[in-house]
Each structure stands twice: as C-alpha cells, then as structure tokens.
Amino acid sequence: MAGNKAKKVTPLMKQYNAIKAKYPDALLLFRVGDFYETFGKDAVKTASILNIMLTKRGNGSESETALAGFPHHSLNTYLPKLVKAGERVAICDQLEDPKQTKTIVKRGVTELVTPGVALNDEVLQSNTNNFLAAIHFGKKEVGVSFLDVSTGEFLVSQGTADYIDKLLQNFNPSEILLSKNDKKQFEDQFTGDFHTFFIENWVFKQEYATELLHKHFKVNSLKGFGVDHLREGCLSSGVILHYLNETQHRQLEHITTLRRIAEDAYIWMDRFTIKNLELYHQTSANAVTLLDVIDHTISPMGGRTLKRWLALPLKNKAEIEKRHQVVDYFLSRPEILHKLQSQIKHIGDIERLISKVATGKINPREIVQLKNSLEAIVPIKAMAVQSENEALKVIGDTLHDCELLRTKIKSVICEDAPVQLAKGNCIAEGFHSELDELRSLSQSGKDYLDNIVERETKATGITSLKIASNNVFGYYIEVRNTHKDKVPDTWIRKQTLVNAERYITEELKEYEAKILGAEEKIQVLEQNLFSELIVWIYDYIQPVQLNAQLIGQLDCLASFAMLAKQHQYVRPFIDDSLAIEIKNGRHPVIEKQLPPGESYIANDISLNNEEQQFIMITGPNMSGKSAILRQTALIVLLAQMGSFVPADEARIGIIDKIFTRVGASDNISMGESTFMVEMNETASILNNISNRSLVLLDEIGRGTSTYDGISIAWAISEYLHEHPARPKTLFATHYHELNRMSETFPRIKNYNVSVKELKDTVLFLRKLVKGGSEHSFGIHVAELAGMPQQVIRRANKMLVELEASRGSEKIADRIEKQQDELQLSFFNLDDPLLEEIKEEIVNTEIDTLTPVEALMKLNEIKRMLTAKKTAKA
C-alpha cells in the first residue's frame, strides 16, 4: 500500500499545479522571487528552446521534478524565442507583495502570449504585421478573419477554399484558430507551414459570434461595417474576440472597425502565382524577392502598407492613377520628396504605440515618442495641403494635427521620462501642485536633516552626533556614550547600543510624519496621473490610427518615387483596353543583381485579344524564357499597385487575374508527382480565366513523356486560344513542335529567345525575336554547367544517331501520320471490336468535346487497338 501513497506536494507546487491545469496547452512561466520558473515537461521544452540549464527541484525527494528558469528581468530576451518557436506562453506573476503576506504569495496568469497574439516589441517585427487568423468552414463557403492585435487592424472575408488559401499566403498569419472538428478539412484543403490552435467546437456558433461582435463594437448590427452578409466570415471574427478574452487580452479599445477584404477590388493571384513570382516569400535561402528590391520605405507603417499593396494590387483605374500622380509629383518636386522623407524619419510606430495605449502596455518614454511623432506630422500636413496635387491635398486634409493631444502630453509628461514609471520623474514639473510639494520635500529632506545636525551639535557640544532612521522607530539621533551626559532632557531615549544611545525628539517626529511615505505618495500620485492621461488619450485612438494609415501610404508613394529615380522606372499608362504593350521591359529583381557594368537585355511584349493573344516562346534552357514571363507579370503588378515600372514605355489594359505555372514545384512529400502538381495547377488556371486574365505557362508537360507532354501542351494551348475570353498568354516551351500551331490558330504567334552559334559553343543573346526556334542546345547547357567532357561527347554522338534515325520527320508529323494510318486501316477491317469503336466515335458529340477530352478518348482507342494487336500476336 505504501507504494500507492500520493506524492507529497509542497504548497508552492500545489499552487503551480492548480494554475497549470487551467493552461494545459501553454508553457507556464511561474514567477518565484526574482525568477520565472518552469517545471516538468514545460521545463524540458523551455531548456531545449532557450538553451538554458535543466535542473531538478526537490532532488531525490518524492516530489522531484524537472526545473528550468531565468531572471524575471530577462523576460524580453527569452519570451520572443519561445513564441517564435511556436509556443503559447502563460506569464504567471505574483499578484501581491511577498512582504505583505505570511502565507504563500497569491499568483495568477496576467497574460497569455501566443504566436498570433503578441504586444511585446521583441516578438513583433516592426515592418511586418503579426496576424492572428480564424477560419470557419461553412456549408458552401469558408470564412476567414485576420487581426493584428498590435495595430488594431481587423479584416474579414469569405469565399472558396482557393480564395482563402490565397489570402493565407498573402497575410501569412502567425497563428490560425480552427474548430477541432475542422482539423482534417484544413489539412486537406490548405498548404503552408502555419501554427494552428484548435478551439472547442461550441465556440463556432453564429449567435455567440454575433453577440461578441455587437458587444465589442457597441452596435446592434454589423451593417455599418458592410460585412453583415459575410455570415461565415463574421463567425470567424467572433472566434477571434473569444480567443482574445481567453488569452487575458480584454483592453481592446483600439480595435475600432471590422473591414471587408473586397475580393473584386484586387488582382486575383492564386498561391502558385504568389510563390512562383517570388513576391515576398523566398523560395530558397539566398533568393531575392520583389519586395526586397522595391522597398525603400522608412517607417514601420510604410513597410506594412507596402506588403499589403503588393499582396493586393488594385483593379480600379482611378485609384491606380491617383497613386501614379503622387509618385509623378514627387519626382517633379525632389525638394518636397526630401522634406517628406526627412519628417517621416522622425515618426515612430504610432500605429502600435496607440494600440499600446489601449491595451495598457505603454510606458512614459513611449508616450513622449508618440507626442514627438505627431509633431513630425504637422509639417507633412501643411506641405500636403499646399501641394498642387489633388490626391496629396486629400491626404493633407485628412491628416489630424492632434494639437490638443500633443499639448496635453507635453504638459503632463516629462520630456526625458524614463521607460519605467516606478523610477519616478515621469510627470512634468508644474503640472500637479501636490506632487511638486512632495518632490520638494523629498529632495530637501537631506538639507533639512543636515541643518538639525549642525544646530544641535552647536547647542549641545556633541561633536559625534548623527541622524539616521530604521523601520522600528523611524528617525533618531545617535550619541556615543562619551557624550551622553550632554544630552538635553527633552530628548527621549529609545535604544541602547554597546557604544551609543539612540534618541528621538518632537521635531524629528513631526518631520518624519511629513517625509515618511513622501516617496510612496509620489509613486502613487505619478501612477494615478499617468493612468488618467492614458484614459484621456482613448479619445484619440481613431485619429492616430488614421494618421498611421496615411503616413504609411505617403511613405509607400515616396518609396515608389525613390525606386523610379534610382532605377529609371517610367510611369505606365493605364487604360480599360484588353492589351498589354511593354517596350524594353526589364526584370526588376534580376536587373538589380547583375554584376557592375553589365546591363539587362530588355525586351518588348505585345499582347491583345484580337491579333496577338498568345505568344509561344521557344529557345534553349538558360536563354531567359522564364525571366521574360516573370518580368511581364511583375511589370503589370508594379503598375497596378501604383508604382512606376522598369521599361521605356508601358501601356497596361487593366488585368484582373494573373496565373502562372512556372518551374517544377514537386509535392512528392504529399504523395504527388511533379506532373500531377503541374496538372492540378494548370486545371485551376483553365477553370478560372477571364478576358482580362494574364496567363504565364513555362514548360507545361515536361513532367511526362515527350509524346504525352507535346499532346497536353498542344491541347492546353488550343483551349486557351479557342476560349471565348481569349486570355492573354505567354507560353515558354522547349517543344519546338508547338511552333506548328501558329499555322492553324491565327492569334498564336511564335517568338524565340535568340542565341548565336559559334564554332564550339553557344552565346545566349536573351533577346526576344519573331519566329520559332529549331534547336534546344541542351548539350551546350550541360557543358556550361561543367558536365564531364566524356558525357558531353557521348551525348553529341547519341544526338547525331537519333536525328539520323528519325530522318527529317518531325514528331508532330509522325503523330499526324500515325493518326492518318490508323484511320485508313480502321474502318476497312471487319472486326466486331472495331465496329464497336466506330459506333462510339460516330455517336461522339465532337463540338462539345474539349481538346483534353479528345486526346483522352484517342488514347483510350489506341490502348484498345494495341491490346487487340498483342492478343493476335
């Protein structure tokens, strides 16, 4: 029976276990004295992540447990590491002064920090939003919400799984909330390395979500936000509010609105396109993204805004042109651009600072920073209002000068206020008379006591007299025994020491009543005055948030101007046509990475729905086909997000969707081949195109055999050409046989990336010229890559043999010839099987058959005939 006896648990561990039981999914940082401690499994995990010592508590006793901890003042060093490792961290603090209690100190969780809910500057990245997302799977559509609790941005949308997947790629949330019921559905439908947290199913209820939203926004309906029709989306928004409450985040006055992500307002790009174009996610460790190249922003708000603009390029011509006009204005007035950027440099992260006001996390020095940042906005407002540019004037008129707020902060907070309120001297001198008196008393105390010592020494002749204090009887006069006969009768003896006596006087008691607690009173008073100021600032949360958004926009537009100035970008002409005309276009990222002195080979692209809808680009590998495809998409994106573009001229008819299938993106770990992934992505394109779509296809069909590859590439090209929408298409391929398509399909035009053949090598000219290419130069590429000469010689020999064996006959000819021969012999044979196939073909509705379906049917017939031939043999 003794073996079954429960372990002895100390009162401290009993308290720890009770708190830990409420937060089983989080690492519990348990404050013990000057340390945050973790126990058991939490300790093992914490020690591993932080690389700190793992020890034991109660070593050798029944209650032995693993222990790992760090000093409480190191929280800002260690907390980010835990959160960035994907951990949820519950911070458990001492809720009372240990000196004031004789029993165990009262403790409780004061904050639960998760990857998606963080206000700590060390956890957050200054120019990147930290979004918490929630997803709800409805019967027909999926709802999603994104909240950055550090800025107050709260966004909602709903749509197909593909659309939500795209948004997840764009917003890249640090944490996603899901119902426990939806775990499998999420894993099946979405890709990406996201931190997920599963919530009890009962939270995902419409009535509960609506109640939370109405209560938070103090409204009776969400119609005012224009989101009431997004049933699934609003449910996900309610889940986020529930989660904030559960994580001890209840001061949310900075979350003032819920905004819809308007799907129809922005260019559609699926996740493959976002990844393929390398807009802001690196595909490899050293990859340079478009964002890396174009980001010249100098404020945190500008950095975050630029990412949003890149993720959501505009489709509204008037809105795009407003941005272009401002960039144009900045380029024509460099002195104004310089003045603007000089002021923006003095603006801190006012969006996150005002959020800290709402959440009660702001310190005195940050309040001063907020005031100084708002002062830097005043000249920006004046400059914008006085400008000749209409779009700038509107921004200037909308900027809030926050004069009352700035004046108030200046009068309340000391200019050189400390970070910690407890350090004192936070409230400005002259603001509060009682505080000034207490400070004067506290500061003059030493002088007062020195005067008493000097006066009493003269009066009594006691030269060794000194005044000190202790916690037992306050201030006292200490006299050595050699002088105690000189002590006046009015002094009251309080303590006898070995060599001295201690006395108190009426004067000292009176002084003590004044001075004792002055420091404490100062601290309480400063705390109260600071808290009152914070509450007063609440009224300015929305104006400051609006200022943050506008400064972010100005910073972005100034960044575009700097980009255009440094790299000779031009203003694109935007219209409602269905054409793209780019003269001497360049790839913005590749151009930036060229060695000094080397210039980028620019290329023209002309696409329209009438004459040149489809450009078939052939040319050897490494010749630059993919670069031409990508640069076309990037120029369109830059133009429609409001930037100038790397070209001599550009006319862009508004594009609504960009689709790319570039390079092999193997998904073998998920059990899919390169070819399967390629076909899935291509199917997604073919099912979503419109007359304003731009389609970029690179080497479609190369994941399978040559015959299959050419057949599929041909069928896809034919489908895109014949589609009523006539999407503008660039198709790069090494299947030279596809050049034959231009003979049959009038809007398909052949181009090739030119090369110059020298005696033993090939020079890549990287220039796009009319006409198809006949050679692949694959062996030359292998040689350039450093392939052993033995392999190169053998490859050349095989190539000669293969070309000789097939004669001058092209694969496309052979396919057609085989099909002709098959047809001639087919109907002359008196065979029941062939009669059956004949019937099936006769009854097939050719007009409604898609090219891909036709190829599949042909393949099926071929298999049946092959099987018949094999059986005869």
Note the topology.
Elements: H1 11-22, E1 27-32, E2 35-39, H2 40-50, E3 55-57, E4 65-71, H3 75-84, E5 89-94, E6 107-113, E7 132-137, E8 142-148, E9 153-159, H4 161-171, E10 175-179, H5 183-189, E11 196-199, H6 206-217, H7 231-246, E12 259-260, E13 268-269, H8 271-276, H9 290-294, H10 300-311, H11 317-332, H12 334-344, H13 350-359, H14 364-386, H15 390-398, H16 403-412, H17 433-460, E14 466-470, E15 474-480, E16 492-496, E17 500-504, H18 506-515, H19 518-537, H20 541-567, E18 573-575, E19 579-585, H21 588-593, E20 603-608, E21 614-618, H22 625-641, E22 649-653, E23 657-661, H23 674-686, E24 693-698, H24 706-722, E25 728-733, H25 741-744, E26 748-757, E27 762-770, H26 778-784, H27 789-806, H28 811-826, H29 832-842, H30 851-872
Parallel strand pairs: 1-5, 7-10, 9-12, 10-11, 13-23, 18-22, 21-25, 21-26, 23-24, 24-25
Antiparallel strand pairs: 1-2, 2-4, 3-4, 5-6, 7-8, 8-9, 14-15, 15-17, 16-17, 19-20, 19-22, 26-27
Helix pairs in contact: 6-7, 10-20, 11-20, 12-14, 12-20, 13-14, 13-20, 14-15, 14-16, 16-19, 17-19, 26-27
Structure description:
The chain is α/β, with parallel strands linked by helices. The protein has six domains: 2-113, MutS, DNA mismatch repair protein, domain I (3-Layer(aba) Sandwich), CATH 3.40.1170; 132-261, MutS, connector domain (Nucleotidyltransferase, domain 5), CATH 3.30.420; 319-419 and 531-567, MutS, DNA mismatch repair protein, Chain A, domain 3; 433-524, MutS, DNA mismatch repair protein, Chain A, domain 3; 573-787, Rossmann fold; 827-872. The chain is 45% helix and 17% strand. A seven-stranded mixed β-sheet has the order 13-23-24-25-21-26-27, sandwiched between helices. A six-stranded mixed β-sheet has the order 3-4-2-1-5-6, sandwiched between helices. Helix 14 packs antiparallel against helix 15. The radius of gyration is 37 Å and the shape is elongated. It starts with 10 loop residues before the first helix and ends with a helix. The model is unreliable at 1-5, 664-672 and 818-829 (pLDDT under 50).
